[in-house]
Every structure is written in C-alpha cells, then in structure tokens.
C-alpha cells in the first residue's frame, strides 16, 4: 500500500522539479568540461552521449553488459537467499548466531579490494566479480534479517500459534510482512553495493568481455568519452536492477498474504465439530519472570459458560495467557485444549493489517469455512462495505468485531475471549453478545470482561479472581 501511495503522490510539478535538477547538473558538467578545455581530461555530456549512441546498438555492447550483469546478479541472488535463510535460522537458534558472528562481522569490515586481490589468486578473474558481490551483500542482508526479526511484534504470531495456524502460514502472514520493510530498506543500498563491488572486481581482474575490462581499457587509452559512457551504463544498470528487485520484493507481500490463506475442498470442510473441552487450573501460581502474582483454582466443565467479571487490572489477562499456554505457571497444573483446539481473542488487537476481514477469518479457520461462509459470518457483525477492505482501514470497533468473528470461525473445543466487546457501543455490544451465543455451538466459553452486564448477555456463570483465586 505504501508504495502505491508514494506513486500516486508524485505530481507533474515533482517530475518537472526532478528534471530541472538533472538539467542543472548536466549544465554544470558541460561548463566544467568547457572550463578544463580538454576532452582527454573531462569529456562533456554531449561527447559522452554521442559515444553512447555509438556503443549501444552494437552486439559487442550487449554481450559485455550480459557478461557482467549475469555474474553480478548471480552473486546478489545467492547473497540474498543465504543471508535470508541464515538470518532466520540464527534468530531462532542463538548458538548458530554466536557461531556466525565473527565470520559475518569480518566480512562486513574487511576492505573489498583486499578480498578481490585474494580471490584473483584463488579463483581467477572470471569468477571473482560474483564472489566479490556475494561477500559485499551477504552481511547486509544477514544483519537486516536479524534486526527485523528481533524488532518484530510477537503478538499476532502468538495468536496464530494458539489457533493452530501452521508455521509456514504464520511466516507468510506475519513474520514476512514484518521483515519485509527491513529487507526493502537494506536492498536499496545493497543493489548499489553489488554493482560497486562487481565492477571493482572486474576493473582489478579485467576478465575478457566484462564492463570492468572496457572501463580499464578506456582509461589506458585515454578514451575519456568511453570511460564516462561505460560509467553511465553501470550507474543506469545499478538503478534499473534496484528498481526491478525492489518491485519484485514488495510484490512478495501480496503473494505471501494470498498464499497464507488456506483453501480447502468442500468435502474436507464437512467434519464433525470437536467435543467441548473443560479448562482446569489446579493450585496454579500465576506470575511473570518468577515473581508470583496469585495462586488460582478454577474448574470449567465442558460446555460451560463463565465470565470473569473483575475490574481492569485485576489479572484477568494473565490468567487468559496462562490458559492459552503463552505464560507458563510458576507451579501447579493447567489443563486446557492445546493448539488447534482453542479459539481465542486477546485484549489487544492482533490482525494481519493488509488482509481483508474475510482473509483474516479464513487464515484462522483451519479450512472449516469457504470464502462465502466467511463473508456470511462477518456480515452478521459488519456492514458489507467493510468486508472487502484491508482491516487497517476499519474503525476500532469494526476491527474488534473481525477478531470476534475470527475466533468463532476457528473450530476449537473451547473459546477464550479477553475483553471481546471493548470499543463497541451499546447496540453493537448487544449484537456481538448475541453473535457469541448463536455460534458457540455448545463449546466451553471463558470470557474476561469488566463490563457489568456481560454475565446476563452471555447467560454465563459469573466468577471473580478473588473468588476463584487466593492471593498470596
């Protein structure tokens, strides 16, 4: 969306302003050439343009461009792929990150010219540009992946994991979307780094048929026009490769979102609903980082409906996270449906922002709904014009109702909702509560809510942490 908005914001005045800046520097170049008074020392833009028009139509020009482009592109592609994979693995396994750290830091700091000289001795001039590009680009991609994954918000990933969404779909819908801006920002520089490293390697090694060789020959023969012409070709190719690769990289965002949504045949959707499952907290000590908060005993029978009606800040969210397996108890026994069998809505908003409401629902439906069924389910809570828009464009109350529909689209044996009616007005609140009763289907329901009327609206048994839990 951001790329499209940027393109739409470019006005004719912006184009004229940029064209004027280019014309200004071309004029400066021409005046500097005239001041020097020697084409051997500084060829002017007209001379260089004439030489370019002579070079470009020749087969030798395209053969030379193809030679260098193939090797630089190959080095960049391998560096990007390996940097991405090793970065993801290193973020997951700290031991691997520690093992790779010295080598990657060395590659990041070592002068590329020194590396090129060694490579010329080891692999020869033909392969040196691809390897030099790899060594220049790999550290940037690797560290970008580490930074992106470390800064990622874990909230949506937690919800998808609790709802039983597979690791590959979680990566496409959540991790890749959060990582992509870091990769795009890094590749803006990495594409230019690749061409600088590749052409530098060709200049030093001068492999026959490369652009580096042509630049080196132009320098030896004092063909300044050719030198500038080939330099402009390198800059143009670097710019074009950057634009093309960034466009491809940004396009993976939509592709990943589309690929993450399950598509299951109708026959596979006709499965029996899971039997309701109870929830038990037996003498459980709740707490964070080893610090106890409360010792809790709570038993919910299969198919029961319970509302924790404590005020805000009483610890309801801590209990919900413990039931969902996201917070380990300090002691005691927790018995609750595991992943796939638990449907959940957390207190904070956790949606795939670029997805529509229907796609968010289908992502967590475990293939239990078709697109039409997801549309029908959401239409009970949302106006029709909100269903096909990215959820980032919806109001807070509408986003909350998307999350509620998503929880009931998931075929869990128990449903856990944390402040499900927050941000809703009175009418929407009542409609959402009726939706819960309509689609509960006999499943166990645990709701954490500070709203006083939710016990009656949900026809549930009230409970309070103070009653169910004995504070230490």
TrEMBL record:
Chief location bin: membrane
Protein name per its UniProtKB record: NitT/TauT family transport system permease protein
Species of the source: Tractidigestivibacter scatoligenes
Gene3D superfamilies: MetI-like, P-loop containing nucleotide triphosphate hydrolases
GO CC terms: plasma membrane
Domain ABC transmembrane type-1: 65-245
Subcellular locations according to the entry: Cell membrane
UniProt record similarity statement: Belongs to the binding-protein-dependent transport system permease family.
CDD domains, alphabetized: TM_PBP2
Membrane topology: Multi-pass membrane protein
Domain of life assignment: Bacteria
Family annotation (Pfam families): ABC_tran, BPD_transp_1
Domain ABC transporter: 279-471
InterPro entries assigned: AAA+_ATPase, ABC_transporter-like_ATP-bd, ABC_transporter-like_CS, MetI-like, MetI-like_sf, P-loop_NTPase
Transmembrane residue ranges: 61-87, 99-122
One Gene Ontology molecular-function label: ATP binding
GO biological process, one term: transmembrane transport
Keywords: ATP-binding, Cell membrane, Membrane, Nucleotide-binding, Transmembrane, Transmembrane helix, Transport
């Amino acid at each position: 969306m951001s790329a499209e908005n940027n393109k739409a914001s470019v006005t004719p005045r912006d184009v004229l302003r940029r064209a004027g800046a280019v014309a200004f520097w071309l004029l400066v170049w021409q005046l500097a050439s005239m001041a020097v008074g020697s084409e051997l020392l500084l060829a002017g833009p007209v001379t260089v343009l004439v030489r370019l028009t002579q070079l470009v139509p020749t087969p030798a020009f395209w053969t030379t461009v193809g030679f260098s482009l193939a090797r630089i592109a190959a080095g960049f592609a391998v560096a990007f792929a390996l940097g991405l994979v090793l970065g993801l693995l290193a973020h997951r396994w700290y031991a691997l990150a520690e093992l790779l750290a010295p080598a990657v830091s060395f590659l990041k700091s070592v002068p590329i010219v020194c590396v090129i000289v060694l490579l010329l001795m080891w692999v020869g001039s033909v392969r040196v540009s691809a390897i030099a590009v790899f060594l220049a680009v790999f550290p940037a991609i690797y560290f970008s992946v580490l930074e992106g994954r470390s800064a990622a918000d874990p909230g949506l990933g937690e919800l998808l994991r609790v709802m039983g969404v597979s690791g590959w779909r979680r990566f496409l819908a959540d991790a890749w979307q959060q990582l992509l801006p870091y990769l795009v920002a890094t590749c803006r520089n990495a594409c230019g780094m690749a061409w600088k490293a590749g052409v530098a390697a060709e200049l030093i090694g001068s492999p026959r048929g490369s652009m580096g060789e042509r630049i080196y020959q132009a320098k030896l023969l004092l063909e300044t026009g050719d030198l500038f012409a080939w330099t402009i070709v390198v800059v143009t190719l670097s710019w074009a490769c950057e634009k093309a690769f960034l466009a491809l990289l940004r396009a993976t965002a939509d592709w990943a979102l589309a690929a993450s949504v399950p598509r299951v045949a109708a026959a596979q959707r006709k499965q029996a609903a899971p039997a309701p499952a109870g929830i038990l907290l037996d003498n459980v000590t709740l707490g964070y980082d080893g610090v106890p908060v409360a010792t809790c005993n709570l038993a919910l029978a299969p198919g029961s409906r319970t509302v924790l009606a404590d005020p805000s800040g009483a610890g309801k969210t801590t209990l919900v996270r413990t039931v969902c397996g996201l917070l380990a108890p300090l002691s005691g026994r927790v018995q609750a449906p595991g992943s796939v069998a638990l449907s959940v809505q957390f207190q904070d908003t956790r949606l795939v922002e670029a997805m529509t409401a229907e796609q968010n629902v289908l992502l967590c439906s475990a293939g239990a709904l078709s697109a039409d069924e997801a549309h029908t389910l959401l239409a009970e809570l949302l106006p029709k014009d909100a269903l096909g828009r990215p959820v980032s464009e919806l109001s807070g109350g509408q986003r909350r109702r998307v999350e509620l529909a998503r929880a009931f689209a998931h075929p869990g044996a128990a449903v856990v909702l944390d402040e499900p009616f927050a941000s809703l007005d009175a009418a929407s609140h009542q409609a959402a509560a009726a939706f819960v009763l309509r689609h509960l289907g006999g499943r166990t329901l645990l709701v954490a809510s500070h709203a006083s009327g939710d016990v009656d609206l949900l026809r549930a048994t009230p409970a309070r942490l103070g009653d169910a839990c004995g504070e230490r």
